[in-house]
Amino acid sequence: MKSCLYLVGMPGCGKSTLGKQFSLHSGYGFVDTDVIIIEEQKKSIEQIYAEGGEASFRLMEHALIQQFFDKENLVICTGGGLPCFHHNMALMNQHGITVFLDVSPEELWNRVKNTDFSGRPIYQDKTPEEIQAVIRERSKERYPFYSTARITLRSDRIVLEDLLEALDKLE
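-> structure tokens emitted (171 positions)
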């Protein structure tokens, strides 16, 4: 396998963790789209949203993802919303292998509940119950996009071996 591997799913599903593990295992490079945008813009995602709104951020993601289409041997950890805008999911499916990390909303909450939400605009100024409701709602909204991935790993405990096994079945 030489193509790019795009990891998609909700915040907290383990994209960065699994992506870094696969990168170390395979020798692939690793990038995180949110980190690249923050570094390129020299602003936090919260600042980008405040200045240009979500639409501006989504256009940045779309422009960035296109830069990877001619790359090989790269793991790309996408922001949670990236697959849901500008036909990004279809484009990633055309140019690489997409993997949806399908983790339950309850487990997502368990993983993020002790997080500092100040950098996540959709969770700011919300009670824990409201954040749980947002996670459930966003999971449902995004599922139709995520579910078009070539590989779906559905578990609250996805490990590297799960990904390696699924990739072997593709070849």
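The chain has a mean pLDDT of 95.
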